[in-house]
Design brief:
heterodimer, A: mainly beta, B: mainly beta, seven-stranded mixed beta sheet, four-stranded antiparallel beta sheet, 11 strands, 0% helix
Chain lengths: 113, 115
């Protein structure tokens, strides 16, 4: 059972464009929604995270939008740069519980110069 | 802290051989996770420990897989016997419980190739 569904599987964007990656979850007990960024040959690293008590969180060019009623959240990368080319994973967990992160299948982002 | 340390970085082995992957979590972190990454299935959680105790091993694919955490600073994932379909990148991650933002710190992974 895939608890977090991520789309698209791959994304190609021109430099300066907006990259948008979407995720949907099933378990309403989830209360922590991070995004991880992974470069080739490296482990995933936390990029930005949100809790369901807010609808949006912004850090620099990266923004998470959260829709609790729809059980969806998305990552927006503004002014995408070639250095943003990586695989992005959304995830969900229950804070204060098992801390177990359930990941989406990932989106490979390519930003062309 | 040097972060989560995994060894070896690369492992090539023949089908049927025993493989042992190693992980040293960040000091003070009380959760340790083993993930497997493949193109087809993404990041799959295999097993995780809390304070060295296995909590959930429902992701372990078969009895050929086993994991141990004898102390807070060391964990192993063993595959015996290995099969070509076990080829993947295996990641270890650790978390400090109770942080304001629960961040999982991943190691660099072990790329396993079974031929």
């Amino acid at each position: 059972q895939q608890q977090v569904k991520q789309s698209p599987q791959s994304l190609i964007v021109q430099k300066g464009g907006i990259s948008i990656i979407n995720c949907a979850y099933e378990n309403t007990a989830f209360d922590y929604f991070p995004w991880y960024q992974q470069f080739p040959g490296k482990g995933p690293a936390l990029l930005i995270a949100i809790r369901p008590d807010v609808s949006e969180k912004k850090e620099g060019r990266f923004t998470i939008s959260f829709n609790k009623s729809a059980k969806q959240f998305s990552l927006h990368i503004m002014d995408s740069q070639p250095g943003d080319s990586a695989t992005y994973f959304c995830a969900a967990s229950i804070q204060g519980g098992s801390e177990k992160l359930v990941f989406g299948k990932g989106t490979k982002l390519t930003v062309n110069p | 802290d040097a972060g989560v340390i995994q060894s070896p970085r690369h492992e090539v082995t023949e089908m049927g051989q025993e493989v042992t992957l190693r992980c040293k979590p960040i000091s003070g972190h009380d959760y340790l996770f083993w993930y497997r990454q493949t193109m087809m299935r993404g990041l799959e959680l295999l097993i995780y420990f809390n304070n060295n105790v296995p909590i959930d091993d429902s992701g372990m694919p078969e009895d050929r897989f086993s994991a141990k955490m004898p102390n807070a600073s060391f964990s192993t994932l063993k595959i015996q016997p290995s099969e070509p379909r076990d080829s993947a990148v295996y990641f270890c991650a650790s978390i400090e419980h109770g942080g304001a933002n629960t961040e999982a710190f991943f190691g660099q992974g072990t790329r396993l190739t079974v031929v």
